């Protein structure tokens, strides 16, 4: 069976890290006898330069017809004017809306060998293995807004419906059922009306999952507890804005934003898989970007869109083995370690996949 994968390398280091993820996927295909057809399309700033729009119709059509989408990163100083009517991030938001992707999964797992790479004390983070379940198509990013007017007033609206909260809550509870059976729902219900709706609705959904423990955590407390007791969290259920911020904070538990993958999913099999990090224009073209977040995103692609659990687990174990062997990119290396580049890290992980299947 031929599986069609669309790649959207995007901007900055996006093409560099996507190249290494494809290297690993090619190795998986060879080792397990799969046939992946790869189509590359523009998105973000690169698409603006090429077509005048951050999400060309041809790109969206190809993504809709694909089995899965692998994205690099978007944006950069060239397109950084926040008042511009056409901006790179519109491509990503349009892609999520166009594919009906309302769930963002951001796993945060600390490999034991990286415990010293984090700026946090080892006893605070040892054993961290949590999943951020972020609502993706509602909230303040999609509510009514106004740019600054002549009176110097601008606003963004955090809006949620009960149905939107229900569907993301069910995802979180189902995931928790296969993990440690704890959902921590994050809100700001002491201040925000939308959060009071969120808390009430999540509590109602919890009744359908009596085996799952539910706790409600205010977002400011959640930010603090991620640094004080991260290993106690299992599934964090969050609104769009809160999940965006907290998952970036959680990257410090693993030592680098370059370590974190993500999956954006809807009701079907198709998903968009991308590293949590941005386009990192300051290191673009230097060959030092950490590709692990993108490679782990490719593992999520194998698991969630293609249903290839064994292959996904093989890639994840390959990443662990390479790290256990002492190989680090510059963002993870300490003074005693000589960092390796983007391509070499990709080569080593692909090699570890090959060895595992041989």
**Total domains, how many?**
2
Chain-averaged pLDDT: 95
Enumerate the spans where pLDDT stays under 50 for 5 or more consecutive residues.
none
Order of helices and strands: EHEHHEHEHEEEHEHEHEHEEHHH
Individual helix count? 12
Computed Rg: 20 Å
Overall CATH architecture of the largest domain:
3-Layer(aba) Sandwich
**Percent in strands:** 15-25%
**Major sheet details:** 10 strands, mixed
Distance between the termini: 22 Å
Broad CATH class of the largest domain? Alpha Beta
Strands side by side in the biggest sheet: 2-1-3-12-11-4-5-10-8-9
CATH fold-level label of the largest domain: Isopropylmalate Dehydrogenase
Give the tally of β-strands: 12
Tell me the CATH superfamily of the largest domain: Isopropylmalate Dehydrogenase
Report what the structure shows:
The chain is an alpha/beta fold. The protein has twelve helices and twelve strands. The chain has helices at 14-32, 44-51, 57-65, 89-99, 122-125, 162-177, 193-206, 219-228, 240-254, 292-304, 309-324, 342-357, and strands at residues 2-10, 35-40, 68-73, 103-109, 129-135, 145-146, 155-156, 182-187, 213-218, 235-238, 261-265, 271-275. Strands 2-1-3-12-11-4-5-10-8-9 form a ten-stranded mixed β-sheet, with helices on both faces. The longest helix has 19 residues, at 14-32. 47% of the residues are buried. The mean pLDDT is 95.
Outline the fold blueprint.
Elements: E1 2-10, H1 14-32, E2 35-40, H2 44-51, H3 57-65, E3 68-73, H4 89-99, E4 103-109, H5 122-125, E5 129-135, E6 145-146, E7 155-156, H6 162-177, E8 182-187, H7 193-206, E9 213-218, H8 219-228, E10 235-238, H9 240-254, E11 261-265, E12 271-275, H10 292-304, H11 309-324, H12 342-357
Parallel strand pairs: 1-2, 1-3, 3-12, 5-10, 8-9, 8-10
Antiparallel strand pairs: 4-5, 4-11, 6-7, 11-12
Helix pairs in contact: 1-10, 1-12, 6-7, 8-9, 10-11, 11-12
């Amino acid at each position: 069976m031929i599986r069609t994968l669309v790649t959207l390398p995007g901007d900055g280091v996006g093409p560099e890290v996507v190249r290494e993820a494809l290297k690993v996927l090619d190795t998986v295909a060879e080792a397990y006898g799969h046939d992946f057809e790869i189509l590359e399309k523009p998105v973000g700033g690169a698409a603006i330069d090429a077509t005048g729009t951050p999400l060309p119709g041809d790109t969206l059509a190809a993504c809709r017809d694909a089995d899965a989408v692998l994205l690099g990163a978007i944006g950069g100083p060239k397109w950084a004017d926040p008042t511009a009517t056409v901006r790179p991030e519109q491509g990503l938001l349009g892609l999520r809306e166009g594919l009906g992707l309302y769930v963002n999964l951001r796993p945060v797992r600390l490999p034991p060998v990286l415990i010293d790479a984090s700026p946090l004390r080892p006893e605070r983070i040892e054993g961290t293995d949590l999943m951020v379940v972020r609502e993706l198509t509602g909230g303040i990013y999609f509510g009514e807004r106004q740019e600054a007017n002549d009176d110097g007033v601008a606003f963004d609206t955090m809006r949620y419906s009960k149905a939107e909260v229900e569907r993301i809550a069910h995802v979180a509870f189902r995931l928790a059922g296969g993990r440690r059976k704890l959902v921590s729902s994050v809100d700001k219900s002491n201040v925000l009306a939308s959060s009071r709706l969120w808390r009430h609705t999540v509590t109602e959904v919890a009744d359908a999952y009596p085996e799952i423990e539910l706790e409600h955590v205010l977002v400011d407390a959640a930010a603090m507890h991620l640094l004080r007791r991260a290993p106690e969290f299992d599934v964090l259920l969050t609104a769009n804005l809160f999940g965006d911020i907290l998952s970036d904070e959680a990257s410090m538990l693993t030592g680098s934003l370059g370590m974190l993958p993500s999956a954006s999913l809807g009701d079907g099999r198709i998903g968009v898989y991308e590293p949590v990090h941005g386009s990192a224009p300051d290191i673009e073209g230097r060959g030092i970007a950490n590709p692990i977040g993108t490679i782990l995103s490719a593992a999520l692609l194998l698991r969630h869109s293609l249903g290839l659990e064994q292959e996904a687990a093989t890639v994840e174990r390959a990443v662990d083995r390479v790290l256990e062997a002492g190989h680090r990119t510059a963002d993870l290396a300490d003074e005693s370690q000589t960092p390796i580049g983007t391509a070499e890290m990709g080569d080593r992980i692909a090699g570890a996949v090959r060895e595992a299947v041989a």
